Structures are given as C-alpha cells and as structure tokens.
Amino acid sequence: GFIGPLTGNAAVIGLVEKNVVDIAVDEINSNWEIKGRKLEMIYEDGKCEGKYAASAAQKLINIDNVKILFVVCSSENLAVAPIAENNKVIQFTAYAGNPKISYAGDFVFRNVNSDRDTAKIAAETIIKEHNKLGILTEQSDYSKGIQQGLIEEFTKIGGDVFYEEYALNSLDLRTQITKILNNKVDAFFIN
Questions:
Q1: Which DSSP category does 184 fall into?
Q2: What is the value of pTM for the model shown?
Q3: Is the per-residue pLDDT at 4 higher than 90?
Q4: Which pLDDT tens digit goes with each residue over 96-113?
Q5: Both ends of the chain: CA-CA distance in Å?
Q6: Given its phi and psi angles, is residue 177 left (phi above 0), alpha (psi -120 to 50 degrees) or beta?
Q7: Do residues 92 and 69 touch, judged by C-beta distance below 8 A?
Q8: Which of 4, 45, 144, 189 sits a CA distance of 20 to 30 A from 84?
C-alpha cells in the first residue's frame, strides 16, 4: 500500500513518489514473479496529514490486507507507525525525515537522512559567520523536526536562536517576521 499526498499543497511530492513507485512496480513485475503473482500497489491519499494517513492505513491493512506500507510525509509516517506496529505491517519511507520516525517502532524503516542530520549541517554552516539565528517554521511535523534539531544544534555550538511558527496556508507572516527581526538576528532560516 502507498500513502502519500496525492491532492492538496504537498501533492507535488506525493505524485513524484507515486511515479517512482509505478516505475519500480513495473520493473519488478517485468523481471520477477513472487510466488507466481505480480506485485500490486494500492494508492491512498494521505494529504500529508496524520488523520488522513491513519484512515488510509486502517483501510489498506484491514480491508485490502496489505503487508507493506510505503508512506511519504513525516506527518503521515508518525500517524501510521502505531497502526503498522500493532498490526505487524512493515512501514517504509524514502522521503520523511522527522527524527521521531527513527524510534517509531520495530516495523518502521526509512532510507533517508534524519532531519537531525540536516539541522546539524545547517547549524555548523550558519555558525561560521552568524551567531544570532532567526527561524520561521511552518507548523508541520516535517518542519518542526528540522526546527527542533536546528535549535538544539545551534545553541549547543554557542549560537542564539529566536523562532516563530506559522500555520499551514498562512498568507501573512509579518507579525512573526517582525518578532524575529526585533531580536537583531544576523541570519534567517525559513523552514
């Protein structure tokens, strides 16, 4: 089963992943059979939101009887992980980087760097020329994972961090930007 954003703001990510999976399934089916059967992928729209992903996982596991889930977004992965664990279904992501996914369970796997790695590299790069960092972060599991890691890494190596968050689909961020700039930051990380 596949759970990813096939509609909505993050559809560009989900549709790319869907196309990659389609290619892989075609290649596998052209070259191998598994116990005389072809591989089939069932697609569900998780909209990059936990509640939709959890519903999709329940359907894929309980109705479609899938044994492996390919899940795209961090929010989707974190919501699906307990369901996959309880049902002993393998969950895999090649995209989601939230650090919490590393500890989500014995059936949850990924082959992408943790956002913690991204945060460490960003902090080490920024601190070379800037000591006061402002972070503007979208309120999503993906962005908050990077924010938390960046705050921890940047302060650990001697920098100061000031941050504000904004809701998904916000159009006016002047208040948050002004609050950050009032702290006289010398670098700005838009997350």
A1: T
A2: 0.78
A3: yes
A4: 888 889 899 999 999 888
A5: 30
A6: alpha
A7: yes
A8: 144
CA dihedral 137, 140, 146, 147 (to 10 degrees): 40
The Cβ of residue 26 has, within 10 Å, a number of other Cβ atoms equal to: 11
Instruction: Give me the numbers of helices (H) and strands (E) for the chain, helices first please.
Output: 6, 8
pLDDT digits 0-9 by tens, 48-92: 999 999 999 999 999 999 999 999 999 999 999 999 999 999 999
Q: Is there a contact between 39 and 29 (Cβ–Cβ < 8 Å)?
A: yes
Place of tokens 């992943």: 17
Tokens at 188, concatenated:
């700005």
CB atoms within 10 A of CB 35: 4
In percent, how much of the chain has pLDDT > 90?
Answer: 76
Measured from the Cβ of residue 82, the count of other Cβ atoms closer than 10 Å reads: 14
163 near 147, Cβ under 8 Å? yes
